[in-house]
Amino acid sequence: MIMLGFDFKSEESVKSVLNSEYGFHSIKTEKIDSYVNRNYLVHCQTRSKEQEKVIVKIVDENGNCVFNNFELQHAFMLHLSENGFECSKPFRNHSGDTYVRHKSGNSTSYFQVLSFVPGQSLNSVKLSSEDFLKISYGCGEKLGNLHKISQRLEFDFDTDTHYEWLPQNALNAMEKLSSVQDEKMVREIKDFMASYETNFLPSLKYLRTGFNHGDFSDTNIILKKIDGKWEFGGIIDFDDCHYGYLVGDLGVAIAYLLTKAVAIGCDISPVAAAVIRGYQAVNPLTAVEKRVLFDAVTSRLCISYIFGCFLASCDPDNSEFIFLQSKHVPRVLEELKRIGRDRIIQYIL
Fold first, then answer.
1. Which of 30, 49, 148, 341 is 20 to 30 A from 281, comparing alpha carbons?
2. What's the structural domain count of the chain?
């Protein structure tokens, strides 16, 4: 559905679209930090007259919407939800669509309303090392379950294989390496990316594929408290979902859980082992996936740091949020270099 007359850029416009297109009456609107999108937490009265929280996500096609994958995002969320996996899911508007599209000249924006997943992001929760290890195992287990459930998803689409965050495209980030000012980090990144080029890329044809979340990270993992203990509560933000390499998705999850480990002063070795064992318990890795997992992790850390530096240079006022995760990458890479590929592989055997 294409809309005219709304710019999607003001809170009043958000309220108007919610009311006219979804039948939701906004009570309170709060802006949420985001890398590129415009996100809002809205307390509203729905069509059923119940009060609940929803997430409004507005994406500009010339910004972060490089996939144009809204149909896949929404089909993926609904499929997971219908199979008992807790995640955000889209609301349909009066026309039965899961988003509203607005065109203005050469610019296109997408307005989505998603369910609110109650709890707190893993990134914001203070945990002991012991509790974090349990959460890490649970995250690995849940990601393995997500991959198994997604095998039953039938969806016909064309994947944009040029998307820079896809595991097979990690080398493209090296074009922005000049954004990294720390010379030691530049050398480390070059070394890790050379290993990735030697080990990961030649193995692509042997890797399993399936639907990936794409950003199974501590900012998108939601925890909930049950009997006073934090447990996995769901996953949000399907912007980067795609059909691709499963071990790449696992590499993303491990990479960001290791940055969280460093942030709370937890040894990264047992964290890596916990995530891997949790995943293996549900969806065992193949021999080739075991061999390239180290590079899936390190390449994601490298491009996360490169893009963090690049985006911060473009938007210095938002640099603190941009570096929320990537500021810990140098320490994680240093530790992974010390641990080495062979020890990581031992965790899988």
1. 341
2. 2
